[in-house]
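Repro:
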Amino acid sequence: MTIKTADLCDKYEQLLQVVEPGLRSFGGKSACAGQIVTLRVHEDNKLVRGELEKNGAGKVLVIDGGGSLRTALVGGNLAKLAADNKWAGVIVYGCVRDSIELAQTTLAVFALATNPVKPRKNGFGEAGVTVCFHGATFKPGAYVYADEDGIVVADRKLE
């Protein structure tokens, strides 16, 4: 399936939440779609690794990092792990690092910015919770569609 968020907005306007602009594409793929898996963390990515170690076929990991620009939550190693485990994409409300490595993966990665500082690895955070940022609500089990034009969220899978 080729993802075109503009077409989804035209066809399913009443069913979609449109994420406010501000997240940029850093991955080797510029688009993704899948069922939402969520995390809420703050400058700590131990839970991120734990999720990405799982089979992610048909899923997109949405990480609410509180919009922190002080550390990266995903880098080249985690992006490779995600791609190897068949995740469709990762959306980070925060920063990423290793941008050249991210661009060489077969993974869609969206984030606010880059920051070379590594995060803590204490395991603090929450998994499987509803998260909200950039004007949208991301519920575990709902669906997200992202491409060069933007990111949209739907309660159900769209054809």
